[in-house]
């Protein structure tokens, strides 16, 4: 059943024009600091890692340097890409990446080349929003000629490494505001009816329909289950409208949808989804779950490489 959803901007059934997008932008309020939460947190990492400024997001008079963190690379080592904050409001994606860098990344020195972009969308991070300032979802914009500055900058960074990446894990959240704000806003922006969904209670993964790697996904689920609970399937055997193919795992056609996890030719790719609004999870647990997922992803891939040698 399709239920009309009231959204305070636009006319139902009519896609937004520039006027509606400008009205939407005028309502966005800065709620936290990228400088304090991300840039300042990266500073202590410079002692042990290389910090690369790979671009700059500019909206009006606001400028946000985009940072990536690398360990000391070896030519023969496999490369692991970790991305967070593609959706700026998904807090543990950012802080989970930073948690991994602070607590676990050193253990992979001499084993993998790490490249971590902890906050791909800093403007949205500060506004606690899914979209960028142009009302564009960066995680549907990872394709040639991307309209999103954030997506285009990350793709430029990764382009020379596309064939060297063994693992890409993209850190996300599914929150209650997906259903209360962001999906209604999407329907209003595109002039489409809003169809209510169900928010899953727990952690899950989104693999690639074209390259599902089920053992890889299950290794991550097993590791994260020690930190926080795994989302069950709903009454239709689905999570957010997609069939559950294994406990806590669904698949999307990543490249077709322009999703971040499609930007390399990595053998192992996944998107994490933590549920921070659960009464059974704390912010610290969510960060640790993201970090545990990264470690499990790397460990599984290295184990598989060793097994075939």
TrEMBL record:
Domain of life the protein comes from: Bacteria
Keyword Zinc: yes
Pfam families: AstE_AspA_cat
Cofactor(s) the record lists: Zn(2+)
Keyword annotations of the record: Hydrolase, Metal-binding, Zinc
Family: Belongs to the peptidase M14 family.
Protein name from the UniProt record: M14 family metallocarboxypeptidase
């Amino acid at each position: 059943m399709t239920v009309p959803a009231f959204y305070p901007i636009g006319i139902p059934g009519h896609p937004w024009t520039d006027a509606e997008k400008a009205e939407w932008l005028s309502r966005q309020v800065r709620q936290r600091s990228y400088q304090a939460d991300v840039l300042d947190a990266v500073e202590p990492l410079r002692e042990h890692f290389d910090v690369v400024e790979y671009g700059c997001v500019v909206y009006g008079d606001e400028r946000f340097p985009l940072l990536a963190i690398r360990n000391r690379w070896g030519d023969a080592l496999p490369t692991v890409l970790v991305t967070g904050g593609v959706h700026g409001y998904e807090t543990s994606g950012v802080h989970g990446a930073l948690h991994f860098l602070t607590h676990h990344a050193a253990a992979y020195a001499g084993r993998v080349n790490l490249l971590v972009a902890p906050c791909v969308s800093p403007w949205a991070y500060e506004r606690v929003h899914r979209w960028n300032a142009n009302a564009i979802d960066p995680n549907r914009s990872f394709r040639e000629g991307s309209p999103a500055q954030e997506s285009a900058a990350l793709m430029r960074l990764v382009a020379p490494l596309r064939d060297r990446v063994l693992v890409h894990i993209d850190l996300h959240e599914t929150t209650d505001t997906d259903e209360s704000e962001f999906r209604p806003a999407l329907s209003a922006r595109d002039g489409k009816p809003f169809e209510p969904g169900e928010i899953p209670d727990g952690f899950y993964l989104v693999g690639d329909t074209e390259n599902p790697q089920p053992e890889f996904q299950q290794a991550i689920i097993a590791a994260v289950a020690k930190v926080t609970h795994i989302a069950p399937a709903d009454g239709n055997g689905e999570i957010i409208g997609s069939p559950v193919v294994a406990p806590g795992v669904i698949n999307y056609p990543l490249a077709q949808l322009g999703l971040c996890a499609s930007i390399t030719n990595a053998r192992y790719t996944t998107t994490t989804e933590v549920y921070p609004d659960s009464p059974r999870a704390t912010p610290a647990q969510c960060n640790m779950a993201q970090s545990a997922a990264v470690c499990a992803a790397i460990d599984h891939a290295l184990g598989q490489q060793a097994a075939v040698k």
